[in-house]
Amino acid sequence: MDWKAYASTINTVVATVAIVAGGIWGVWQYREEGEKQRAAQRFEAAKPFLQRQQDLCFEASDSASALAIATDAEHVAKALERFWQLYYGSLRIVEDTGPDSVADNMMKFGNLLQALPHDSAGLAAMEPGARKLVLPSLHLADACARLIEKGQHAGEEEHGANDDD
Fold first, then answer.
1. Are 158 and 42 in contact (CB under 8 A)?
2. Plot region of 122 (φ>0 → left; ψ -120 to 50 → alpha; else → beta)
3. What is the pLDDT of residues 53-99, one digit of tens each?
4. Separation of alpha carbons 111 and 113, rounded Å
């Protein structure tokens, strides 16, 4: 075989390999970009849920902390009503479960509330017994913070793939 034919064959093989490699790379890039777009769409779709979850966590923490430090009956009544609304209602839809979760801390706080002595109006007697609620209120706030951070971290992971470019 002469050098011209050999060079032509090598040239053809190299060109074919380059075309095949380019095609594979193009398909890989297309799939990678599609996954990034799907991840971004999933995160965008989750934003309203995560925002609602955050809002309700703040409300639950606010009600618990208000009960932990409350001194007047009117404030106690409002905070109790809101706490039980969240406990039995909308917070249950968005809270996490498991040990030391928002659900677990809401249950512990609710159990402590029910164990406190009640006055004739049915309100928990908050003056001396309420200080028992300070630490559980902080635990609930911590659980809420972890849940919110978890949602934010999930969003960062979804968008993290876009930062590699």
1. yes
2. left
3. 999 999 999 999 999 888 788 888 899 999 999 999 999 999 999 99
4. 5
Model confidence at 140, pLDDT cuts 50, 70, 90, reads: very high
Contact criterion met (CB below 8 Å) for 112 and 132? yes
Domain boundaries, the chain: 47-164
Classify 118 as helix, strand or coil: strand
Rounded mean pLDDT, 1-11? 83
DSSP 47-101: HHHHHHHHHHHHHHHHHHHHHHH--SHHHHHHHHHHHHHHHHTHHHHH---STTS
pLDDT of residue 137: 95
Work out the angle at residue 111's Cα, subtended by the Cα atoms of residues 123 and 60, and round it to the nearest 5 degrees. 75
**Dihedral angle sign, alpha carbons of residues 136, 92, 43, 99:** positive
